[in-house]
Amino acid sequence: MKIAVFASLLASAAAFAPAQQGAMKSSTALNADLSEKPGALLPIGYFDPYRLATDEATFDKYRANEIKHGRVAMLAVVGYVVPEFYRFGFDIAPGLPCSEVPNGVAALDAIPSLGWAQMFFAIGAVDYYGFLGNFDIGKPSFPDDVMKKRETQEVQNGRLAMLAILELLRHDSQNLVSPGFDGLDNLITGLPFLYN
């Protein structure tokens, strides 16, 4: 008990001690550099209200993650819409052809657990080991301004796709549980007001 009281007294005394003055770091130069990176658009420019990207390495890590998740979201949106129009002819599992797997969130219950395990471990291995490949062959050589514009377009399209897949999932899952709505209609190709 005496040790706890003594420790709390030391902690409270340390709270009023003057803080150590370290070297002042200015983030103005960093923000100026980051405002020139792809993805910063007018009128907002570079947007980091919580100051998560404190240095160039942190920014590069977050930007790489943003691009990766944006690309995955773009594929997810395409994969969410395409089954409305086209199905593969093979079986996803023995006795379960792709044509019988429902679209959207309803497909979560149709895929067997072994299929989920295969997907989980395959995606995890690719993400953990980073099979990035060397795709420099055939990389187009554009002028700097055109390349910056295309990189900005990729970041912006990825941001839009991340919002789009979240909205598609929300829309699909909300309609599956809404009373009076069977949820099995074409949710993607129809207009929302047609279902009322």
From TrEMBL:
Chlorophyll a binds at residues 66, 69. One of its GO terms (biological process) is photosynthesis, light harvesting. One of its GO terms (molecular function) is chlorophyll binding. The light-harvesting complex (LHC) functions as a light receptor, it captures and delivers excitation energy to photosystems with which it is closely associated. Energy is transferred from the carotenoid and chlorophyll C (or B) to chlorophyll A and the photosynthetic reaction centers where it is used to synthesize ATP and reducing power. Belongs to the fucoxanthin chlorophyll protein family. Residues 1-15 form the signal peptide. It comes from Amphora coffeiformis. Keywords: Chlorophyll, Chloroplast, Chromophore, Light-harvesting polypeptide, Photosynthesis, Plastid, Signal. The keyword Iron-sulfur does not apply. The LHC complex of chromophytic algae is composed of fucoxanthin, chlorophyll A and C bound non-covalently by fucoxanthin chlorophyll proteins (FCPs). The ratio of the pigments in LHC; fucoxanthin: chlorophyll C: chlorophyll A; (0.6-1): (0.1-0.3): (1). InterPro entries: Chloro_AB-bd_pln, Chloroa_b-bind. It is found in: Plastid, Chloroplast. Pfam families: Chloroa_b-bind. Chlorophyll b binds at residue 71. It comes from the Eukaryota. GO terms for cellular component: chloroplast; light-harvesting complex; membrane. The keyword Acetylation does not apply. This is Plastid light harvesting protein.
